[in-house]
């Protein structure tokens, strides 16, 4: 029995290096291969105008590699049909701790934003616990953390919900929400900052980062790049790439209108 256990252990030791090598071999050495949603503007889009597109272009350039995209809508099956299929090697934006990918170190932290018309007195509101929000109709993506906060403060009854998981090639909840805001159908809109901030900037609306609200669930998230499970060497290479180029990544994000906050979501990030 003990001999069989020793043989099994030896077999695992012999197989493990080969398996690790096979995983590493999936990463292209001749191109920077990015998995992306073709219609997730303002983050990524097939026309290359998204801020994640610009980050990918910059990182490909500093590596001296051509940029290649594999396009797939970020719905159920995204990771399976892109990263896990070996068609590409990195997702530029992925929330820290997501079990479907191996996360790099986070390269920015952002939070949800409250969006208002610039001429509205509500433009000064910076927290969902503000009594000034009572009686107002607020747009929120159903099932997201801000919806829980609205419920806690008695604001969910008049809220208007928008779908969370959609194929952005045919549906645009964020755009619909801001159309409703501009039309007066809702008084305020709440969106994830990397989506809401750039869209508000484009439309001349006011996007206020939500930094003051306490209690669960949290409204801020750390964003990483995602790679295949087991690709530790590739993850470490990307960590080094991010660290060396953090200043330019910050510039791209800020130029796009993405609100950058500290690692604890309590204040705007200080940019050196």
TrEMBL record:
PANTHER family: ARGININE-BINDING EXTRACELLULAR PROTEIN ARTP (PTHR35936:SF17), MEMBRANE-BOUND LYTIC MUREIN TRANSGLYCOSYLASE F (PTHR35936). Keywords: Signal. It comes from the Bacteria. InterPro entries: Quinoprotein_dehydrogenase, Solute-binding_3/MltF_N. The lineage of its organism: Bacteria, Pseudomonadati, Pseudomonadota, Alphaproteobacteria, Rhodobacterales. The keyword Signal applies. This is Substrate-binding domain-containing protein. Residues 31-256 form the Solute-binding protein family 3/N-terminal domain. SMART domains: PBPb (SM00062). Residues 1-21 form the signal peptide.
């Amino acid at each position: 029995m003990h001999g069989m256990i020793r043989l099994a252990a030896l077999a695992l030791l012999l197989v493990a290096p080969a398996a690790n090598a096979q995983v590493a071999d999936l990463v292209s050495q001749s191109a920077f291969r990015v998995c992306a949603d073709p219609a997730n503007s303002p983050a990524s889009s097939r026309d290359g105008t998204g801020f994640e597109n610009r980050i990918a272009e910059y990182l490909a350039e500093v590596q001296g590699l051509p940029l290649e995209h594999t396009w797939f809508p970020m719905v159920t099956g995204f990771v399976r049909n892109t990263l896990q299929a070996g068609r590409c090697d990195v997702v530029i934006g992925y929330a820290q701790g997501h079990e479907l990918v191996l996360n790099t170190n986070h390269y920015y932290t952002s939070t949800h934003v409250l969006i208002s018309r610039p001429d509205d007195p509500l433009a000064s509101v910076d927290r969902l616990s503000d009594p000034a929000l009572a009686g107002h109709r607020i747009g929120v993506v159903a099932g997201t953390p801000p919806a829980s906060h609205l419920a806690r403060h008695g604001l969910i009854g008049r809220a208007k919900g928008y779908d969370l998981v959609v194929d952005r090639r045919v549906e645009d909840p964020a755009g619909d929400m801001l159309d409703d805001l501009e039309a007066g159908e809702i008084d305020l809109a709440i969106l994830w900052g990397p989506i809401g901030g750039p869209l508000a900037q484009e439309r001349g609306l006011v996007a206020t980062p939500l930094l003051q609200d306490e209690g669960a669930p949290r409204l801020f998230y750390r964003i990483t790049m995602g790679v295949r499970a087991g690709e530790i060497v590739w993850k470490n290479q990307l960590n080094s790439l991010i660290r060396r180029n953090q200043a330019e990544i910050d510039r791209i994000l800020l130029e796009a209108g993405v609100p950058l906050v500290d690692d604890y979501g309590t204040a705007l990030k200080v940019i050196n």
